Every structure is written in structure tokens, then in C-alpha cells.
Amino acid sequence: MATIKDIAERAGVSSATVSRVLNFDASLSVADETKKRVFEAAEELDYRKRTSKKYVHQKIAVIHWYTEKEELNDLYYLSIRLGIEQRCKDIGMNPEVYFFDNIKDINPAEIEGIIAIGKFGPKQVDELTDINPLVVFVDYSPNEEKFDTIVIDFEKATNKIIDFFIATSHQKIGFIGGRELLKGQEKPIEDLRENAFQSYMKEKGLYNDRFVFVGSFSVEDGYNLMQQAIEELGEDLPTAFFISSDVMAIGSMRALHEANIAIPERVSIIGINDMSVSKHMYPSLSTIRVYTEIMGEAAVDTLLERLEGRKVAKKIVVSTKLIIRNSVKK
User: Which residue has the higher pLDDT, 103 or 156?
Assistant: First the structure.
């Protein structure tokens, strides 16, 4: 811990001046620049620089809340995992990938920490911390006071989509989305995209619950829900849909093609994630780019900070970007 003398030497002032500045002595008459030097010196000396520890051959567990089969139906989580693996490769660390149904295979003595991808209930969080107390959660935040988290601001992403649709003269805007179940629970958790859509559309005076269709995050449900919208709404089908994942958008667009409903002439579509296949669809899919590789990299770096001594939990919110392609009128 830095002493008054250490601070005085760095700031170039007397120890008495440092003491009075740090105690906010109202009777002290010194220039603001002097005060600044003292405060900066105190902060710099109190900051313990992280070591450049090498992590070659050390292991972390990357735990996916899905099964391996489920992961293939939702490429969002797969792409996060690939970002984690690439960052580990860059620093020489070994990521051992587990799906939640085989975490008993983990040897706690062999891993430095855990990166948990997806949604975990209280019981699962306890199971993870029993293996290793250093856990970074990606795409979920079970306890921001205790755990590091890497998340997306889905409210802002949703608002970007709605603002674009309104700016391009759409008033009848629909929503096709999914909900997810925490392991061991029967009630789906609230989806931030769905909540944000409802809230912002109501704020704009455009919300219509007849235009909202919700299932699970899969190509199949995207297809089935759009079919349901077409059959139930007929000529009242919205002119634009926000679809809360690209995989659901793929199914939804197929349903529109089969019904001979033109995209984007009759219905504009925007998804979310910007999977690698999105630009190759017909028409190419407009979407919110979620920087999943950055989320994965940030998870690894955040875990390294913990290993190097950081004690305070932090939350990282990764930005998104609206990518306009041919599935919308411009």
C-alpha cells in the first residue's frame, strides 16, 4: 500500500500537502493542478498492475447449456463458443468443451476456471461453482454482484429494428420470437427481445398483440409461426416482421416463399445475429449483427483478469449493428 511519502515523492509536493489534499482540507490553498497531481499519484500507486502471466497448457472448461444436438439448431451459441476457442488458441490456453449433460466428466483439479454459455438456473449455477468458483457467464447474468457477465443490449437492438421499419413507412409490424427454458424449470424465462418489442411498439402507438407469435428458437418454429401468421391474418398480415433470431428468419422466409408472398415487396424481414449464411439467403437477410466472436473473446479475457487477481465482478455489454440487405424495402 502506498504511503503519504510515496505519493508526495511522485507528485512533487510535501507530505503535509498530500495529507491535506487527501483529507479535502478546505483551508488549504493550492492550485487545482497540484491537487490533480496528488490524486493521480495516489491512484496510480494504489493500482496493482496485472502480471503478464503465461497460460500455455493451462485449461479452462467451456460449458454449454445446450446439448451438442441442440447447439446445431441455434448457431448463435455455437459462434460464441468458436470465439472462445479462437481466443484461447491465441494465448496458448486449452479450452475443454462440455455440454451441461456431461459436466460430471470435468476434473476440477485440472481447470483454472469456467466460461458458461447460455442460460443456467440457480441449481445449475451452484453445480458450476462447486466445480470452480471462477465462472464467467456469456449471454446471461444470474448475479451481477457475484459473477462476471458478457451480454448484449437486446433492448437497443430491438429499438434499432423498429426505428428502421417506421422510417421506411411500416406501421403494421409483426414479431416472431422464441422463449427458452432454464434447465430443470418448466416456465420459460422472459425474452428481452419480446419484452422490448412490446414496450417500444406501445410507446410508438403501434402494438397489436395479434401480430406477435412466439415459439422456440429453431428453423422449424420460425417456419411454423410464419405459417400460422399467414393463415390467421390473411390480408391483414403485417408488412414487416422482426424475427428474433436468424435461424427463425430462415424458416419464416421459407414459409413466405411457399405462400407466394414476396420479400420484401409484400413483407420485409429483419433477423438478429448475422450468421454467416444470412448474406447468402434469397433474398439476403437484413439482420442485427451480434458480435458473437467478440463476446467469446471478452469472456476469455475477463476470466484471465479474475485469475490475475481482480475481485470485483463486472458486466460487459457488447454493441450491435443493423445490417441492411435485400429482405427489406430501403
Answer: 156
C-alpha distances (whole Å) from 92 to each of 86, 124, 295 are 10, 29, 19
Task: Label residues 88-98 b or e (16+ Cβ within 10 Å = b).
Answer: beeeebbbebb
Q: What is the pLDDT of residue 46?
A: 65
Whether the Cβ atoms of residue 324 and residue 164 lie closer than 8 Å to each other: yes
Distance, CA of 138 to CA of 118 (rounded, Å): 6
Nearest CA to 173 among 133, 126, 206? Answer: 206
Rounded to 5 degrees, φ, ψ at 112 are: -85, -25
Nine cell digits for residue 223 = 417456419
E-assigned strand segments in the chain: 59-64, 94-99, 111-117, 135-138, 148-152, 173-178, 212-215, 240-243, 268-273, 286-290, 315-318, 320-323
Specify the pLDDT at position 277.
81
What angle do the packed helices 4-11 and 15-22 form, to 10 degrees?
Answer: 110
Per-domain boundaries in the chain: 4-46, 59-152+293-318, 154-290
Which fold is adopted by the domain 154-290? Rossmann fold (3.40.50)
50 confidence band (pLDDT: 50, 70, 90)? very low
Superfamily of domain 59-152+293-318: Response regulator (3.40.50.2300)
Residue of higher predicted confidence among 4 and 159: 159
Q: Does the pLDDT of residue 66 top 50, yes or no?
A: yes
% pLDDT > 70, the chain = 93
Question: One fold for both 59-152+293-318 and 154-290?
Answer: yes
Annotate 290-315 with DSSP letters as a single string. Answer: E-HHHHHHHHHHHHHHHHTT--S--E
| Sheet (strand 94-99) strand order | 94-99, 59-64, 111-117, 135-138, 148-152, 315-318
Cα–Cα distance, 192 to 182 (Å, whole number) = 15
pTM score: 0.82
